RNA sequence: GUGGCUGUAGCUCAGUUGGUUAGAGCAUCAGAUUGUGGUUCUGAGGGUCGGGGGUUCGAGACCCCUCAGUCACCCCA
């Protein structure tokens, strides 16, 4: 016999966990809906050509490829000249790596029918062949909201408000909405004359929190930057103060770059729009870079409250030419993503799940024999018609056992229809929380709330 | 892909310098209780000690290999 198991980095979700997860999903979904976003779902797998090259070298490595194991392909693969050729013969599909690229693909495929701007949300699992660790899974859910076909910075403002709304509704406090603009980072590379090293620079400075100023300096040197370059970057990283002070320092330091000035302007608008109040105001973090290199404007990352050591629970940004890679030029997109699995871990750690998420069956009818079950069934159907979750114990087991079942399931009410009740034409309703029991008529029962 | 730590009952873990038949708590099931749950008491089931090899008179323990889990790095939600 094989010991049953599941692949590492994947999880089963039991009833209690699913209920809690649904609470998060519902909070996010309803917020997306009230902001005017429409639902979209795409297949778990995409053609490999849709996905490869979109997430950088690392992304290609972490992609779960689907093996096409029919005999013809296997034979052809054996004759392949290189590993690369062999793998492209063996696999032409992969599980989706995120929701943004499939969305871009969908937009391009349906561009004739779509009314722009198109605002969609999508909540589905994605897969990454990563080594699992705390807060990192190989199958996890993302909840994305994106807008394509609108250049207005009001989108950015609204998306930040969505973060603020959802996290507040989930009862989270102490989270940080960190905002930056890719044009500023791009301008920094421009100022030191190393635009080709933009990605290296951003990856390094993004680690400032983790490895410190000295670590960043070492890494930048290793990536081919001169001492003079590094000095400029360190001045950049030293930027601090209030948002206004940071913006002013950026303006001075990056005065030579028009791109940077544009980015500073955008950042200033997003931070200071004043269209609506935030519960937790977004903050400027010039070291925020984010990995995906298709971002071109605002970038945002949500940090979990510092006490839980979880890091990022969401992120997003603007990409001016997302659909360009599929041949549809000049359409801008901006979007955000919630990492549900990490939010779950954070809420769990901070004990922020409301009790009410666990309520399921409200009333259990005890089964005390054929006549009892028959009478109970019709009362049960009345409750169900009223929208009250109810069940009947299907076996005519000992009362003790049935009561224990109700207790363990957390069912708050038990209805007893034994011989005496049937004779009197009454129902005994017991509240398991208080221990109180009362006999009521059928008419009174039809009015009871649970 | 790289490194550290951990694998004993369904779960959490004991198990002495290597020594007889591997234990506890929780959980499960049954009974005390033939119309009343939570608390209590009694009893039962449940293990090729992750797998394979080695050292030894003797291995859950020591050595090697392997698999799995976990944490960290890379990268990322």
**Rg for CA atoms:** 28 Å
Q: What's the number of extended β-strand segments?
A: 16
Number of helices: 18
Largest sheet: 8 strands, mixed
**Cα separation of the termini:** 47 Å
Protein architecture, described:
With 450 residues, this protein is an alpha+beta fold. It is built from 18 helices and 16 strands. The chain has helices spanning 15-34, 48-51, 56-62, 71-78, 83-90, 100-109, 154-169, 182-191, 198-205, 208-222, 227-237, 243-253, 258-272, 340-349, 370-385, 399-409, 419-424, 442-447, and strands at 38-39, 45-47, 65-66, 93-95, 118-127, 139-148, 176-181, 283-284, 298-303, 312-319, 333-339, 363-365, 390-392, 413-416, 426-431, 437-441. It has an 8-stranded mixed beta sheet. It has a 5-stranded mixed beta sheet with strand order 13-12-14-15-16. Strands 2-4-3 form a 3-stranded antiparallel beta sheet. α15 (370-385) links the parallel β12 and β13. α1 (15-34) runs antiparallel to α7, α1 crosses α14 (340-349) and α12 runs antiparallel to α13. It is elongated. The mean pLDDT is 89.
